[in-house]
Design brief:
- There is one protein chain.
- With 467 residues, the chain is of the alpha/beta class.
- The protein folds into three domains: 8-228, no CATH class; 250-369, no CATH class; 374-466, no CATH class.
- The protein has helices at 8-22, 27-36, 41-66, 69-82, 88-124, 129-140, 152-177, 181-228, 238-248, 251-262, 270-275, 282-295, 300-304, 309-327, 397-400, 416-428, 432-439, 452-461; strands spanning 332-334, 339-348, 351-358, 368-369, 374-378, 386-389, 392-396, 408-411, 442-445, 464-466.
- Helix 1 packs antiparallel against helix 2 and helix 1 packs across helix 9.
- The longest helix is centred in the middle third of the chain and has 48 residues, at 181-228.
Length: 467
């Protein structure tokens, strides 16, 4: 059984997972779930979009270090003062680098803003205004005023770019005024040393802040992912979701789920429950989903023929997972139908689902686990329909009046007519699996007088007859 959530954070995580896997077919249901986690949506998206903007912003910083526009201009001016005839190839390379830089950085920030907008829109399913809000936040990163996410290094980039541009301008003015060749060359060496120191200083500042920014973005993403666990987690089971809606849902949902949980599966009509999946009332639809999960194999046939095949597939998937987990490891017996629990299959949209349940009615919630052989008996003198002696479990045809599954069959008391009546009922039974079961099972006759005709019928239906 799945562990039920206990904290509000875990309950919200369950709702987020249901929203992610639901498919948004039922708009009213989606809206009801979104209203539960409306308050923490901004925190969730902030962490995700912050990580995205942080990653794209870091690419901008790397490009700034590799192809610094302001520094290429500074370097070009310096070359002009050192050499009267600078290398044209170098200058062309510098100019091309500057152009690449000026095109690349805005491109990456446009990518950041549009990616953020797309993520924001599809994660929140909100109105178009959120697209513009997110795009504005992406553009705002360039000006050091990010609204979403951890992108502090973008502010550093802007500050350093402005400072470098101002420094370049001051230097150009100073060199223009001091036209002495000797002074210019002396200044050029000082300038080179200062430039190198400046580059290392900038690199140290940028790398340090880049590391902190990455850590902040990573921590935000890690905590968000750990808190909600929605990207890799499966859709929550209806049992877990039922507990969550009972805890954090609105009053109508809580009352509906509570009513559904109090209804014994045996008192529900599978056909009516499946029909309620298409009800015009949200509470009825949600309640029907949880009742389907409780009924298990009893609603498999109806779900396979229902109109909403997408919802049917989701329910069949969970019924399959739950019944395999609960009933496949052991041997179970349905007293209502006197039938063993076995694996069965159903096909929907070319998808085959395997589930476990009573071979006759499909239920698996009210079954008995067998530890030994299952024996059917004819015993008119017996007082119990079902009885257990150590590991042996038996049912009495004389008191039940129905044919059931067996590992062996015994006639302990009664007359030839009692055995003949049983054999006639068995021959009229339409369960082919049961007929094969009887052909492999022995019949032990413990009464004295049995007619030749009755023995002949018994030998045709049982694998072995012992008298």
């Amino acid at each position: 059984m799945s562990r039920l959530p206990s904290s509000i954070m875990e309950h919200h995580a369950i709702v987020w997972r249901e929203l992610l896997h639901h498919g948004f077919v039922d708009h009213e249901y989606r809206t009801a779930l979104e209203s539960i986690v409306e308050n923490d949506r901004s925190g969730l998206l902030g962490g995700i979009i912050g990580a995205l903007n942080g990653f794209v912003g870091s690419i901008g910083i790397v490009l700034t270090l590799l192809i610094p526009a302001a520094w290429t201009r500074l370097f070009g001016n310096l070359m002009l003062y050192i050499d009267a005839s600078p290398d044209e190839a170098i200058l062309n390379s510098i100019e091309q680098s500057r152009k690449i830089f000026e095109l690349a950085i805005p491109g990456f920030y446009v990518l950041a803003s549009t990616s953020s907008a797309t993520l924001f829109y599809f994660a929140s399913r909100a109105r178009w205004k959120n697209i513009f809000r997110s795009m504005f936040s992406g553009v705002a990163v360039m000006f050091g005023a990010p609204l979403i996410g951890a992108v502090a290094f973008a502010q550093i980039f802007v500050v350093l770019a402005i400072a470098t541009a101002i420094g370049t301008r001051i230097l150009n003015v100073a060199v223009d005024q001091l036209s002495s060749l000797t002074f210019s060359m002396s200044w050029s060496y000082v300038y080179w040393v200062g430039l190198i120191v400046w580059i290392f200083l900038v690199a140290a500042i940028v790398i340090g802040n880049l590391r902190d920014a990455f850590k902040q973005s990573y921590d935000s993403w890690r905590d968000t992912a750990r808190k909600y666990g929605i990207w890799w987690a499966r859709r929550p089971t209806f049992q877990v979701l039922e507990n969550t809606l009972n805890y954090v849902g609105n009053d109508a949902l809580r009352q509906g789920i509570d009513k559904a949980s109090r209804s014994p599966p045996g008192s529900l009509d599978p056909l009516r429950v499946v029909e309620s999946l298409s009800s015009s009332l949200l509470v009825d639809r949600v309640t029907a989903r949880h009742r389907c999960a409780r009924l298990g194999g009893m609603v498999v046939t109806q779900l396979a023929n229902s109109r909403d095949q997408q919802l049917a597939i989701a329910l069949l998937t969970q019924i399959s997972q739950t019944t395999i987990k609960n009933l496949s490891r052991g041997r179970y017996f349905c007293q209502k139908c006197v039938t063993l629990v076995q694996s069965q299959t159903v096909k929907v949209r070319n998808k085959t689902f395997t589930f476990w349940g009573c071979r006759s009615c499909g239920q698996g919630h009210k079954v008995l686990k067998l530890a030994g052989p299952l024996v059917g008996v004819i015993d008119p003198l017996g007082s119990e329909k079902f009885s257990q002696d150590r590991d042996l479990y038996q049912w009495n045809y004389s008191l039940l009046g129905v044919i059931g599954d067996i590992d062996r069959f015994e006639v302990r008391s009664g007359s030839d007519e009692d055995l003949e009546r049983f054999l006639i009922d068995l021959s009229n039974d339409h369960d082919k699996v049961r007929h094969e079961m009887y052909r492999r099972s022995p019949l032990w006759i413990q009464i004295g007088s049995v007619s030749t005709n009755t023995l002949s019928m018994a030998r045709e239906m049982f694998g072995q007859v012992k008298k």
